[in-house]
Amino acid sequence: MQLPSKRCPDRPTPSFHPLIVALALLFFPVQAQAAPFWSFTQDKPPIQAAAPEAVVLRTEIQGLANDLFRHLADADPENGDLGKGVLVCTFVELKKLTRTSSLGRYVAEQLMNELQQHHYEVVEIRKSQAILLQEKRGEFGLSRNPAEVNQMPAAGAMLTGTYTASKDSIVINARIIDNRSAKLLSAATVIIPRNKLAEQLLADTASVRLEKPEPLYMKKLEL
Question: Considering the domain boundaries, does residue 32 fall inside one?
Fold first, then answer.
C-alpha cells in the first residue's frame, strides 16, 4: 500500500539587510572574473620583429625584376625577346652616367640572379680569360680590367638603368635594350627608402676615369 507523501511546507526565502550585504562584501570581497578587455598589468603580445633592411631591399629588387619580365612583348626565355642572351651593366646615377656606387653594383648583381632564376641566358661580361691565383688571397675569375676580359661578349640584349637619390628615398629605373637596334624592350621603376643600408651603399660613390682628350691645335690658313 502506497503511503501518502508528506509535503514539506515552503520555506521562506531568507532576506538580508542591505547593510549586512555591504559589510560582507567589504570584509570578504568576491574575486572578479577576467575582464574581456586588455589589462595593463598583463604581458603585452610579442611585437613582430621588422625584416632586416637587406631583406627588404632584395624583395624590392625582385619586384623590379618581375615588372621587367611582365612588360616584355615575348617573355619566352628560349625564343622570346631575350632568347639571344642578356648582359647586365652597373646602374649609374641619373645626373651623371659615368658615376656609380655599391648601390648601382648591387642592383645589377641582384637582377643578374633574378634573370638566371627565371631561366634567361645571362652573359657574364666580367669573366676573366684566365684565373688569377694569389697566395693567401684566393682564386679570382672576375675582373674589370679591359685587358683581362673578353671585349666582344655576344648577347642580344642589355639590362641597365639609373638611380636618383632624394632626401628620403631612391628611385631606381631599369630597362632592357636590344643591342642591335637600341630598341627599348622593357622598363620598370621601383622606389626604395633611403635608410641606413642605402646610405652605406651610396657612400663609396666613384666616377669613371676618362682620359682627357689631346689638345687640338688649329692653324690659320693663309690664303
Answer: no
**In the predicted model, is pLDDT for residue 44 greater than 60?**
no
User: Which amino acid is located at 11 in the chain?
Assistant: R
* Domain presence at residue 1: no
Entry pTM: 0.70
Residue 113: give its domain's CATH number: 3.40.50
Range of the domain at 199: 53-124+158-206
Q: Could you give the angle at the alpha carbon of 105 between the alpha carbons of 183 and 163, nearest 5°?
A: 60
Domain annotation covers residue 139 = no
Domain count within the chain: 1
98-113 pLDDT tens trace: 999 999 999 999 999 9
Residues with Cβ within 8 Å of residue 57, at least 6 apart in sequence: 106, 192, 197, 198
pLDDT in tens, 59-88: 999 999 999 999 999 999 999 999 999 999
Q: Which of 193, 191, 173 is nearest to 71 (CA)?
A: 173
Q: In this structure, which amino acid lies at residue 132?
A: L
